[in-house]
Every structure is written in C-alpha cells, then in structure tokens.
Amino acid sequence: GQYGYNEPVLVEKGNGSWDMDKLQAGIGEGYTELLRLAGKRLKKKGLPLSVHVNSSMVLPEWRDRTSLLNMPPNIEWQWRRWIEERIADYVCLKHAFLLDTELHLDLFIDRVTGVAGRCGVPVINIMSRGPKFEGPNYHVARQMEIVARDPRLTAFNIYESASITRFNAGGAIEGSEDIAALAAKYFPGLARR
Question: What is the pTM of this model?
C-alpha cells in the first residue's frame, strides 16, 4: 500500500476507516511523537534537533501541485507543535523557491518566524535546489539574498553541499568559487575557511 494508506495505519490511526481527517491527524500525531523521541535522544548526546518546514506544509493552498517536492497530503504536518513544544531546537525553511510570488514567500517566512519568535526558536533558510560547482547558481543567489535582507532569518544553510565540493587533480578537497563569491557578496563578514 501507499505510505500512510496501508492496513496497519488504517486500523491504528484511522480506526479502520478511510476518514481522511482521522488518518491525517493520527499519522501527524505519530510523526510528532517520532520527532519528540528523536529530540530527547539527541539532547542526551548534546545534539540539536532541526526540523525542516516545507512551504507546502505552511501554505498548502499555494503549493505547486505538479511538484514532487510537495509533502504528502495524508499527514497533518504539525509544524507549529514542533516549535511550540520546543521539540525543535531550530527550524529550517525548505522549498521556498516553490512559491510563485514575493507575497507568498513573505507569508511563508512570517508564519513560521511568528511562531518561532514567540518560542525563542531560531529559523534558518535552507538552500535545497541544485547548487552547482560551477555557476551560474541563480537559486543559491536568490536564497542567500533572502536571508541577507530579512532580519527574521538567522542563518543560511546549503543543504546539498556534495555538489559544490570536489577532489581536485592533486587529491585535495576544493570548494566552488562561484558559491564562495556569492557568500562573500551576501555575507561580507563571513570568514573564508
């Protein structure tokens, strides 16, 4: 069966019915409990738990229905609880590039940072769309620019970093000069390592 629609889930979370509201809530509760338990284990080891909050979780009405990057609709994504109950140590915004206007982008950032700000949980923007070793990296530049100009966001994280580092001919690891130039442009105080 499809994820969330198999027999054990229908029995345990949906009381044997296909009531979509019950299924979404039950699966969402299960996922939140999984995050809670993972967070406790990480805290015992002195490690933080970050949660990725996808734009389609926060603004499902504006999601690109053709994108495979949307979150499954059979789960009630309880992102507010993850923040309010301090399950998350910090929140990563993800897939903001799927939003089609500045208004929707601002609404996405505002909804998440509004909850996180009241709870003292930092929010970072996460670049998750195809950074390349050699440019042009239009999406990376756009995401960096968002963080650089928006005081609601506290940091920037390049998620798929394997695509912007490589071994050179001498066997040493080198990083993308294009990404380094963008970081220097948008975050001039950033020390280069």
Answer: 0.76
